């Protein structure tokens, strides 16, 4: 079932460019995933107030293709904060200005771990 509005807070907004396409002219899924990781990292850093790294991506589902010129918006919401990790649900919505259409194109859960300067796990501040 399709929802009408994004879930979470806007973390990142950009535009899909020709250099990010595959041979079919659609935007690479890997580029979309990278935008999601950046958006999630922003939220994880704000929540943790320290360095974080991505340790897992779960449930990645591509629902619709993204085209050149689409405005890509990543929304994030913290779903769990553990001792060392932060779990964030991310959604990507696109706005096709020419078609006056806004639609969710993918979602996934990203897990980040807080680390120190040596790359070792650290406990999150409460």
UniProtKB/TrEMBL annotation:
<comment type="similarity">
    <text>Belongs to the acyl coenzyme A hydrolase family.</text>
</comment>
<dbReference type="InterPro" id="IPR029069">
    <property type="entry name" value="HotDog_dom_sf"/>
</dbReference>
<dbReference type="InterPro" id="IPR006683">
    <property type="entry name" value="Thioestr_dom"/>
</dbReference>
<dbReference type="GO" id="GO:0006637">
    <property type="term" value="P:acyl-CoA metabolic process"/>
</dbReference>
<dbReference type="GO" id="GO:0009062">
    <property type="term" value="P:fatty acid catabolic process"/>
</dbReference>
<protein>
    <submittedName>
        <fullName>Cytosolic long-chain acyl-CoA thioester hydrolase family protein</fullName>
    </submittedName>
</protein>
<dbReference type="GO" id="GO:0005829">
    <property type="term" value="C:cytosol"/>
</dbReference>
<keyword id="KW-0378">Hydrolase</keyword>
<dbReference type="InterPro" id="IPR033120">
    <property type="entry name" value="HOTDOG_ACOT"/>
</dbReference>
<dbReference type="Pfam" id="PF03061">
    <property type="entry name" value="4HBT"/>
</dbReference>
<dbReference type="GO" id="GO:0052816">
    <property type="term" value="F:long-chain fatty acyl-CoA hydrolase activity"/>
</dbReference>
<dbReference type="InterPro" id="IPR040170">
    <property type="entry name" value="Cytosol_ACT"/>
</dbReference>
<feature type="domain" description="HotDog ACOT-type">
    <location>
        <begin position="6"/>
        <end position="118"/>
    </location>
</feature>
